[in-house]
Amino acid sequence: MQTETFRELVSLKEARRLCRERLGKHRMDTERVPLLEAVGRVLATVISARAPLPHFARSIRDGYAVRASDTFSASPANAVLLQLTGTVHIGQTPDFTVQFGEAAPIPTGGMLPAGADAVVMVEYADLMGTDEVQIFRAAAPGQYVQQVGEDMPEGKQALAPGSVLGPAEIALLSALGETQVEVYRRPCVGIFSTGDEIVAPEIEPAPGQTRDANAYGLAAACRSNGSEPLMLGIVRDDVDELLSTARAALDDCDILLISGGSSAGTRDITRQVLAELTIEQIFVDGIALRPGKPTIVAAQDHRLIFGLPGHPVSALIVFHRLVRPVIGWLTGTEVHDATQIAQVTRNIPSEAGLTEYVRVKLRRDDDELWAEPIFGKSASLSTLAQTDGFIEIDTGTEGLTEGEQAPVILWR
Description:
Layout: H1 12-23, E1 30-34, E2 47-48, E3 58-59, E4 63-66, E5 80-84, E6 102-106, E7 118-121, E8 125-128, E9 132-135, E10 145-146, E11 157-159, H2 167-175, E12 180-184, E13 188-194, E14 198-199, E15 210-211, H3 214-224, E16 228-235, H4 239-250, E17 255-259, H5 267-277, E18 284-285, E19 289-290, E20 296-300, E21 303-308, H6 312-330, E22 339-344, E23 355-365, E24 368-373, H7 381-385, E25 389-393, E26 405-410
Parallel strand pairs: 5-6, 13-16, 13-17, 14-15, 17-21, 19-23, 22-24
Antiparallel strand pairs: 1-12, 2-11, 3-10, 4-6, 4-7, 5-9, 8-9, 18-20, 20-21, 22-26, 23-24, 23-25, 25-26
Helix pairs in contact: 1-6, 3-6, 4-5
């Protein structure tokens, strides 16, 4: 078969734009799930507070509920003596009022009794017998008191659509009394590897064969980024077999990843399959990336089909930089990179005309963060496993010099 070279390299930014253009306003369907099953999911609706949070004024310290004006003259040298009235018990409504010249013991979270408008911490008070307390520090009105609706007033928007529900969001939803939430369905990502030389991980490879690392790495990346992988196995370098597998997969999947059939020599098979699968032509036919240049992308309706490079490092970097944002768009959220600024430990050259990703390991030395480049070929999985992230060197940058600061894009 005559091989075909890249038709036209596009920038990563342009590849993202083209993918987003094909998706348009398409989003995943939604589903309602119990709160604890929503961890890591993307919220599909506005959540507003149905009642003020908190719904009663409460103490945020252990101490004494007082009228602040009674303490204005208090100091370590001039303590104010207040009479003790009833005691506040956690989870109960006080049945008494704090009058002028009085104080009431109150625990953290206890409801502020009527008449009181501040709390003096227990560290600034001394009990005098059973019915009096000395106050050694003045309190301002509202001190150590969380007022009704101070956290969130009734009717205020608590979370917006597109919010990723982590521990803090789940805690807030629980406090608001939300036991179920509407979230976007996780995109289903079909994954299969191509190649006559690829075998499953449990098989002892013969000379010339290699275990399928790509599909497993990509499946892990899917699960780490809010989608559900569908493992479709290994397909031989055969157009008919590849076409039938892809057609069947598109009935169930929102995204399809074909790994290994996009490098020169085998990419023609993937291109032929994508041309038969889709009405549109391939709209990305190579990206100006290193590694990751031989990536191709096509669309069938709102389903995107990616022909990824066969080298595992290339495939995972393309997933991180291109497929990951697509998963975010399908679930109505913008994906942002987690980065740390570090100094590079040595000069890093770059190739003109390509956006280059250099794998690095982070280390801290004398309170400064350093990024140690880990060079290796795009087939070298061991180098990828050693890294904390990578540095992006744009097409207009002539590499980096030792000691220069750069943002490190973190894997996790």
